[in-house]
Design goal:
Blueprint (H helix, E strand, L loop, with lengths): L1 E4 L8 H14 L4 E5 L5 H6 L10 H6 L9 E3 L5 E4 L8 H5 L8 H6 L8 E5 L6 H9 L2 E7 L2 H4 L2 H14 L5 E8 L6 H14 L12 H5 L7 H4 L4 H18 L1
Parallel strand pairs: 1-5, 1-6, 2-4, 2-5, 6-7
Antiparallel strand pairs: 3-4
Helix pairs in contact: 1-12
């Protein structure tokens, strides 16, 4: 299963979700690859200690068909979780691929040789609906959509759904929504409960039963190059992401 974690809205906990869901599945015994496509490289920096060992990144692999993904893949601080690293050079990718006939298939081609090696491949996408995100949607079998439970974060959902439908029609007819994850949720706020109800109306059974609360531990863990499970294993964030991983495993059976 190849899961693109995507939402063009920034600040919704997308990277936090990609890192910690991938980590939770790795701790459960799955073989997991996290592919960082964001030029900021936050997924890579969150759980990889020795990035300086490599002078290349995903950008180089996507631009040079002779390079294999393994050349930019490092073990993370989570056993069983590898990371294909990103650097600022990814910011050049859209301009480099513009006009290329296979421009939106590059990531799919890169991932195909390693697909059987992993039980799950997670793609952390940038907060845009540009060519890099399009590559991720074409390469993915499923989507995980984090949505913050605030009014403004609902804006743009229509654009995302429209893009998904276009990708289905043109390049990836089998693309499915694995689930919608409500993040940065504060049950004390009326607006949070109202937004939750609206998300439920739009996505129905696709919404995960587990919601992710605001958490200091989730914010702190990347500074120590750790997932929340080793940094604060008893925290609410660790418990919630473990439950999300359990829901994903259950959905993957169907």
């Amino acid at each position: 299963m190849i899961v693109a974690v995507t939402n063009q809205k920034g600040g919704v906990g997308k990277t936090t979700t990609a890192v910690n869901v991938a980590a939770a599945l790795a701790f459960s015994g799955c073989r997991v690859l996290l592919v960082d496509t964001d030029s900021q490289g936050h997924s890579s920096k969150s759980i990889v200690r020795d990035m300086e060992k490599l002078d290349k990144s995903l950008y180089d692999v996507m631009m040079n068909p002779g390079l294999k993904l393994a050349s930019v893949t490092l073990a993370s601080t989570v056993p069983g979780l590898d990371v294909a690293i990103s650097r600022i050079s990814m910011a050049k990718l859209e301009a480099s691929l513009l006009g290329q006939i296979d421009g939106h298939f590059r990531l799919k081609d890169v991932l195909e040789p390693v697909r059987e090696k992993y039980d799950f491949i997670f793609i952390d996408t940038p907060p845009t609906l540009g060519l890099i995100t399009l590559n991720s949607l074409v390469a993915a079998t499923h989507l995980l959509i984090p949505i913050q439970s605030s009014y403004l974060c609902l804006e743009g959902t229509d654009d995302l759904l429209e893009t998904i439908e276009k990708v289905r029609r043109v390049a990836n007819p089998g693309l499915q929504i694995l689930g919608v994850l409500i993040t940065l949720h504060d049950t004390r706020l009326n607006i949070a409960r109202d937004v939750e109800e609206r998300i439920q109306r739009v996505f129905g059974e696709k919404v995960f039963h587990t919601h992710i609360s605001k958490s200091v531990k989730l914010e702190e863990s990347p500074a120590y190059k750790e997932s929340v499970f080793t940094y604060a294993s008893g925290s609410v964030g660790a418990l919630q992401y473990k439950k999300v991983a359990e829901e994903i495993l259950e959905r993957a059976k169907n």
